[in-house]
């Protein structure tokens, strides 16, 4: 049965092109006699598109919530959008490969279909590195942003993983495309003599796949621990901390998917029945990239969950006449001439019905009226982005001034 020709390298290099073709045809004929024509493409194809549909729904909802809540999108949203687009490119390449025989034994495929199945399946692996790269970069950017609300959090570890993520995964993509130099077509056409002559040893590709997978698994572990440290530093109640952690620490799921993908990379260790044997690997590649897109976007769906809970319980707090709820923007200076952040504390006294001067202070108070005194600490920041993101995911809860100042 045709399981790989790495052991025949020395023999193949001694044969002429015609003899190599005859040897491969003989191996294929023998394999067809021993193995049934099984097609795994159906269930795998459905998994790919169902997962992509789910991640598209989550990411799209995230973008809509951001636009509705903040009236704009941020860098982390742009990176996530790029990641989602690359996920669609990956799925499109896989679809072409499935249509031409990915999922079936290579020796049952016609030469033209075998070529297309191998070509598009191989190139899909390039996007399988770049798509989750942008998903992880998006979450790292988000963590950098909310870390600015916590003086105890060090930012250099996040920057370190950002740089290493780019280097490791871009290099993996480059290595895939350059593995045979200008003779990549020889691999798709199964010209074994030229493949063994011009292409890197298959162990190089396999070992780097192990390394990249291990590093991506480590990154997902870091992206699980780092939010936990941010949550630990907050003054939220224990129950609220657990709720926020259940959203922000979901990268542990991506870590499991990345680990399984790394283990499945052993199928790359020989020039073999790629169209059939790589199908489980392709499945876990799709699981990993879609899980990364999904779990790094779910925390920003928290406002939607809050609205759904309010509709379900059908209870809304009645607003009192002296309600002190304010918008996030109202506690930050928005002028372009602000050069630095300032903090301060004070006591605000508001008398209901009392006239106010243009600068907002009460001009006169009637002691017979209801008076409410609130002591607050106010933070004025030129850049509202960190606090906005912290509020969106629940690291800072509520809009009341004293709650925003509670970290």
Automatic annotation (TrEMBL):
Chief location category: membrane
Transmembrane segments: 47-65, 77-98, 118-146, 158-178, 208-230, 242-261, 281-301
Record key words, sorted: Membrane, Transmembrane, Transmembrane helix
Membrane association type: Multi-pass membrane protein
Record's keyword annotation contains Transmembrane: yes
InterPro entries on file: Rhodopsin_dom_fungi (IPR049326), SAT4-like (IPR052337)
Domain Rhodopsin: 62-306
Subcellular location: Membrane
Residue stretches in coiled coil: none
GO cellular component, one term: membrane
Homology family: Belongs to the SAT4 family.
Protein name per its UniProtKB record: Rhodopsin domain-containing protein
């Amino acid at each position: 049965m045709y399981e790989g020709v790495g052991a025949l390298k020395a023999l193949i290099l001694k044969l002429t092109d015609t003899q190599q073709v005859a040897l491969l045809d003989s191996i294929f004929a023998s394999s067809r006699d021993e193995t049934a024509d099984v097609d795994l493409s159906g269930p795998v194809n459905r998994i790919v598109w169902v997962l992509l549909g789910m991640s598209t729904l989550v990411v799209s909802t995230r973008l809509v919530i951001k636009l509705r809540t903040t009236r704009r999108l941020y860098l982390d949203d742009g990176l996530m959008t790029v990641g989602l687009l690359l996920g669609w490119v990956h799925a499109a390449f896989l679809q072409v490969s499935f249509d031409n025989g990915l999922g079936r034994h290579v020796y049952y495929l016609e030469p033209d279909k075998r070529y297309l199945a191998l070509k598009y399946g191989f190139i899909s692996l390039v996007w399988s590195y770049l798509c989750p790269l942008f998903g992880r970069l998006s979450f790292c950017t988000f963590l950098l942003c909310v870390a600015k609300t916590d003086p105890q959090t060090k930012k250099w570890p996040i920057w370190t993983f950002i740089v290493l993520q780019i280097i490791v995964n871009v290099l993996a993509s480059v290595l895939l495309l350059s593995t045979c130099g200008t003779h990549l077509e020889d691999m798709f056409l199964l010209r074994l003599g030229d493949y063994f002559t011009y292409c890197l040893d298959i162990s190089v590709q396999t070992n780097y796949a192990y390394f990249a997978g291990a590093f991506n698994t480590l990154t997902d572990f870091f992206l699980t621990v780092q939010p936990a440290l941010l949550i630990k530093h907050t003054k939220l109640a224990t129950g609220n901390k657990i709720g926020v952690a259940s959203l922000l620490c979901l990268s542990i799921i991506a870590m499991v998917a990345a680990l399984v993908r790394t283990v499945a990379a052993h199928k790359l260790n020989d020039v073999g029945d790629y169209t059939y044997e790589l199908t489980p690997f392709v499945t876990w590649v799709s699981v990993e990239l879609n899980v990364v897109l999904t779990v790094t976007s779910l925390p920003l769906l928290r406002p939607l969950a809050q609205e759904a809970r309010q509709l379900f319980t059908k209870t809304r707090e009645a607003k009192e006449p002296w309600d002190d709820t304010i918008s996030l923007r109202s506690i930050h200076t928005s002028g372009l001439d602000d050069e630095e952040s300032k903090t301060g504390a004070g006591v605000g006294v508001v008398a209901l019905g009392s006239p106010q001067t243009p600068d907002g202070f009460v001009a006169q108070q009637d002691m017979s009226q209801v008076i409410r005194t609130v002591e607050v600490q106010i933070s004025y920041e030129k850049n509202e982005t960190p606090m906005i993101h912290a509020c969106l995911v629940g690291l800072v809860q509520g809009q009341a001034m004293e709650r925003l100042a509670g970290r």
